[in-house]
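sanity check both lines:
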Amino acid sequence: LSVLTHLWDNALSYGQAAAHFNIRNSGIFAQWIRLYREGGLDALQPRRKGRHRSMSAPITKPSEDQEQIPLSQEALLKELNHLR
């Protein structure tokens, strides 16, 4: 917003504003102006890149088979050795 305000207040061309703010692509100003006019300040906020998640994974309760049963240290060591 401050870049656009400076551009408008000083009646700068896109090239002049790009040089002043050290922005390589002077064509971005046209996009920023369009976004600002269509959606206000919120439209200029950066957006996350990538695909949107369509649905979150369903939350499931563990079944009786999956429930954690407290095991003794000896049983845990035995299971660890078996898994290795």
In short: The two ends are 59 Å apart (CA to CA). Residues 23 and 41 are 20 Å apart (CA to CA).
